[in-house]
Amino acid sequence: MITKCLFPAAGYGTRFLPATKAQPKEMLPILNKPLIQYGVEEAMEAGMFNIACVTGRGKRAIEDHFDITFELESKISGTSKEEQLRCIRELIDNCTFSYTRQTHMRGLGDAILTGETLIGNQPFGVVLADDLCVGESDGVLKQMVRVYEKYQCSVVAVQEVPMDEVDKYGIVSGVRLDDEHMRVDRMVEKPSSADAPSNLAVIGRYILTPDIFDILRNTPAGKHGEVQLTDALQAQAANGKVIAYRFKGQRFDCGSIEGFVEATNFFFARYKK
Q1: Contact 258, 142 (CB under 8 A)
Q2: CATH number at residue 258
């Protein structure tokens, strides 16, 4: 059973400056909840109650959010406002939260390797909070747990993207197993449209097996001195140990202003019903 989920949350959020100059991008709200809370709720639904966060300088707001605020809660106790904290109290009461810091921003692969001390030797989920996902029935991470249980190897969530956008993603190709599953044989980080092996893009949901840590330790830094998770997954894929899963649901790229607005409109339409 997968019980831990890793949240790499050390990035600067430069696409949202100046809003992210003094607050974490993971704390930007979609309506009345920050992005990272949606991700933790998805992890808890999937049975991952141990939440591990890799943070950095200026990210204390994340720790404070998943903690009790005695003064505030005392102030609103017994009022109608108390109900508004019910969802976050459910997470605080049911999950454990642990934190470590990525001291240098050296890419997603390095962030995940930094989280090894919190994960240990077991399979684990990974959520990139600025990819906000809404499952059709079950959440995306819960769907992926079932894929892991069947194939017992790393799983990446994928979706088709336009060919003129493949240079924004890790792109996969491989052997199709059925309409939803592919055994990956090739992964390319942000290829040009001419070099892309397909238009299937990896989005910010993963289930990784613990051997990924040793692979990352031996993965050289690439462009801009960053250690790419894609390179480590390629090493697993070479041994047939990565499944790409076409999830059922919708994904919003809340790392971009366009995706952030789209997600806000989507959830506001739900709120009005």
Answers
A1: no
A2: 3.90.550.10
Q: What is the DSSP string of 97-121?
A: EEEEE-SS---HHHHHHHTHHHH-S
- What is the number of residues in the chain? 273
Tokens read off for 217: 């330790």
Three-state secondary structure call for residue 41: helix
Domain count, the chain: 1
What is the mean predicted confidence (pLDDT) over 148-168? 93
The residue among 112, 98, 91 whose CA lies nearest residue 10 is 112
Entry pTM: 0.93
Which residues are 6's β-sheet partners?
52, 126
Residue type (1 letter), 262:
E
Backbone φ and ψ for 72, nearest 5 degrees, come out as -65, -45
- Which residues share a beta bridge with 172? 187, 200
pLDDT tops 90 at residue 105: no
200, 173 in Cβ contact below 8 A? yes
- Of the chain, the percentage scoring pLDDT greater than 90 comes to 71
Domain limits for position 188: 4-272
